[in-house]
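Render this sequence as a predicted structure.
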Amino acid sequence: MKVMIVADIEDRRIYDYYRKDRTEGVELIVACGDLKTGYLDFLITMVNVPTIYICGNHDGNLIKDPVGGAECIEDRVFKFKGYNFAGLGGSFRYNPYGRNMYTEKEMRWRAAKLAPRIKLAGGLDVLVTHAPAAGYGDLEDLPHRGFETFNTMMNKYKPAYMFHGHVHANYGVNIPMHQTHESGTLIYNAYGYQIIDLPDKV
């Protein structure tokens, strides 16, 4: 199953120079935050497959005005072709008045509330977040710090994948776009866009 993951920027390779062959075979779009509604609308129209998303720290508008034709998976589990996707958007709280920002304690509480839904779904296959996990592609500054909560979740549920955004590839020369977590989870930074080939389950 081919999954298109997107985050943070309106990638010109897709937005300005769209070619059908670039997204051939994609069956699901997973948006990892900080994308304009118009861009998501464009992807939904052009790629024409189911789309799920979580909110980034700059996505207050998506709460008031959800993306038509897509499903927000914040704090819930979404099932698709045998895979369970769970969403926890937002970033580390660096502005006391910012929306979609959380302390470590607040994110841990969100994960705890999500736990019964993961259990009911029969486990977790893909963790979808905006911020990275602590120590895996995050940065030292507070706005781009990763959450330890996500490490705890990966160690507990051992999902096959984690998709995140927030840390832009142009922030430095050593920004990892793909890593393996200590739990075995494959972590992908969705900045721009990537197409990931997941083994078929059904």
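Summary. The helical segments are 12-15, 37-47, 60-64, 104-121, 148-157. The mean pLDDT is 92.
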